[in-house]
Design goal:
- By secondary structure, this protein is of the alpha+beta class.
- The protein is built from 8 helices and 9 strands.
- Strands 1, 2, 3, 4, 5, 6, 7, 8 and 9 form a 9-stranded antiparallel sheet that branches.
- Strand 8 and strand 9 form a beta hairpin.
- Helix 4 packs across helix 6.
């Protein structure tokens, strides 16, 4: 159960550093993935964004300290708030009362327990997949800066698809190699941090487009169909929460690849999710 051990070590680190600015790279390193992938996987597994979980845990601990007699300003500074106003806003958003009232006897407060990951056997639907080794391939297409915060990327990427949607037809004549389809690629590494809507191609790069080379890697390839973006998001969640923990693989340091076998936008679209993997 290395996967569980790694993730629980990451959660232990998180708990020990709630009074500091958390190092997302260290969290990812402990869990065996990148900082960006850690945020994505946490959201899928826990059902709550990482930043929201951190806020809830900090405000849970802050409430306990206020009840023990600590001053509001001291608690605010301890949990990284530079002013009582910002701390008051965060505290009241969770508990429904200002921090000063939390010191009173008999007041009702909310508590969010720390997360511990466990293996639970359940009868989920079967998931078919292939492990594919692919040589490096070049892509050509449109790109946008990829936010390092995974939750922000959930907003930016759909917006980018909307902006580029009318120009998808410009990509089709450029497609001349595998993987075949319209590609959505999140690079997310230390030197390249963009999201591409592109095709695999050896053609010259048209004006207004960009090229990039996807490194050679092994991918676990899953197929799906349904209404976008919900169907592919659901498949990605199942891959991370159901398949990956007990698969014998871990997320590799390579880009995610979405392959749209039909032009995105239809009521029923066929697609593939390519998850970069390496043996544990």
């Amino acid at each position: 159960m290395d996967w569980l051990d790694n993730w629980n070590r990451a959660m232990e680190y998180l708990e020990e550093h709630l009074e500091e600015e958390l190092d997302l790279k260290e969290l990812g390193k402990l869990a065996g993935c990148s900082a960006y992938h850690f945020q994505r996987m946490f959201s899928y597994l826990a059902g709550v964004p990482l930043h929201e979980y951190i806020r809830r845990r900090r405000m849970t601990l802050a409430a306990a300290e206020l009840q023990s007699g600590e001053k509001v300003l001291d608690v605010a500074l301890r949990f990284g708030y530079e002013s009582p106003t910002s701390f008051n806003r965060a505290f009241q958003a969770l508990h429904g009362i200002p921090p000063s009232e939390a010191k009173q006897s008999g007041v009702k407060l909310k508590a969010f327990s720390r997360i511990r990951f466990k293996f639970i056997l359940k009868g989920a639907e079967e998931m078919e997949y292939q492990i594919v080794k692919e040589k490096a391939f070049r892509i050509v297409g449109f790109r946008t800066p990829q936010p390092s915060d995974a939750e922000e990327s959930f907003r930016v990427i759909p917006q980018f698809w909307s902006e580029v949607g009318s120009r998808i037809g410009e990509l089709l004549p450029l497609m001349n190699s595998n993987p075949s389809g319209i590609l959505g690629i999140c690079t997310c590494n230390e030197t390249e941090n963009h999201y591409y809507i592109a095709v695999a191609s050896s053609a010259p790069v048209p004006e207004g487009m960009y090229e990039w080379t996807v490194p050679a890697a092994s991918w676990a390839v899953f197929s799906g169909a349904g209404s976008l973006p919900f169907a592919i998001q659901d498949l990605q969640k199942r891959i991370v929460s159901e398949w990956l923990p007990d698969s014998g693989y871990e997320w590799a340091q390579a880009p995610d690849v979405e392959v749209y076998l039909d032009p995105p936008g239809g009521a029923e679209s066929r697609f593939q999710v390519w998850l970069p993997v390496t043996k544990r």
